[in-house]
């Protein structure tokens, strides 16, 4: 999703590929500010004003880790702005940080694996640091890794994309639970939420947990990784781990407001996963990722995944119908494509390309819901993947979407059904937010 709904049986080893706080714990600012950051004015040219948590920590000589042996959860997005180099490479070369191990999530530390895959545990050739395969790692497995790597502090630095079914935030969740149980310090080097700070969509319900949703957050959660960590610590860790992380710190982003999207930062986009090529992809993903659960191609095997959607049975009528819906922030173009892998591989698919007309007005989940209800009304061939719609239940966090869809309810009715729970979780999360909404 870009973690795939279905894990593949095979795993791609890096060597083969390359050929060889307590509840409500506060944010940490290396500059001394300990209160939540005030929103910066929106701008398209941040220049030197915008810095991620890793940049802030690096500028201070990594003093936040002084005297500690750390384990790092990161991937290709965990870079410092100066030179766009991996934080692990920079830390090792600095000689100021002792790294006991790196824990690679889905797609791996160096990013050599496709969706639903990981890099095997190996010794990194550049740094000599052991990299552990942490994709899908349970709490107990993380605890074992922490013991083997002999770490005092666990560090998380990954660019999230803001959707519940993107697996990195659940790597964060399980790692935090393991840190809480074993008494480790936990530090998040924060990065912006590329789709902004607004929560949208249904909240996960009991009985629908999975690797693409371990606990009760909204489908578009509207938080940075640092804010999520604080939310997890206050709301979930006492139940999951028996206690919260006692020492949780967040090195905050500077020069960014949750009212801004990633494109507003002026920073280069580094693909968080192979099928997340642009910030536009990320903006649509919290909704159009739901097409993973259908018999339509979600654009994997094309250069515009989660923007091109289609199937062999779809024709011009879908684009025509969607254009008449006048959904905010998006436009629909009739499109035809032939995926080179994944669903409908080698088949010409009719469908649409979703174009972003106004990024600030895009509601990806409402858009995807409308796309699906129009498909239902136009094409008898439309169907769900999985046993009796299992995947759409896991992606939306309950069986309500499927029930209402099957009953013929409109997109507006389906979207309205989750508004009360969305308002409730929005109230709950406020105490954990670091960046002013």
Could you list some keywords that capture this structure?
437 residues, alpha/beta, Rossmann fold, Aspartate Aminotransferase, domain 1, 2 domains, seven-stranded mixed β-sheet, three-stranded antiparallel β-sheet, 14 helices, 14 strands, 15% strand, globular, disordered N terminus
What this model shows, in words?
This protein is of the alpha/beta class and 437 residues long. The protein has two domains: 261 residues, Rossmann fold (3-Layer(aba) Sandwich); 120 residues, Aspartate Aminotransferase, domain 1, CATH 3.90.1150.140. Helix content is 29%, strand content 15%. It contains 14 helices and 14 strands. The strands form four sheets. A seven-stranded mixed β-sheet has the order 5-6-4-1-7-8-11, sandwiched between helices. A three-stranded antiparallel β-sheet has the order 12-14-13, covered by helices on one side. Strand 7, helix 5 and strand 8 form a beta-alpha-beta unit. It is globular, with a radius of gyration of 21 Å. The chain starts with 13 loop residues before the first helix and ends in an 8-residue tail after the last helix. 54% of the residues are buried.
Fraction of helical residues: 25-40%
Total strand count, please?
A: 14
User: Class of the largest domain in CATH?
Assistant: Alpha Beta
Give the ordered list of helices and strands: HHEEEHEEEHEHEEEHHEHEHEEHHHHH
Main sheet: strand order? 5-6-4-1-7-8-11
Choose one word for the global shape.
globular
> What is the name of the CATH topology of the largest domain?
Rossmann fold
Averaged pLDDT? 90
Pick out the low-confidence regions. Answer: 1-46
Q: Just name the CATH architecture of the largest domain.
A: 3-Layer(aba) Sandwich
C-alpha-based Rg, rounded: 21 Å
Number of distinct helices: 14
Fourth CATH level, the homologous superfamily of the largest domain: Uncharacterised protein PF07075, DUF1343
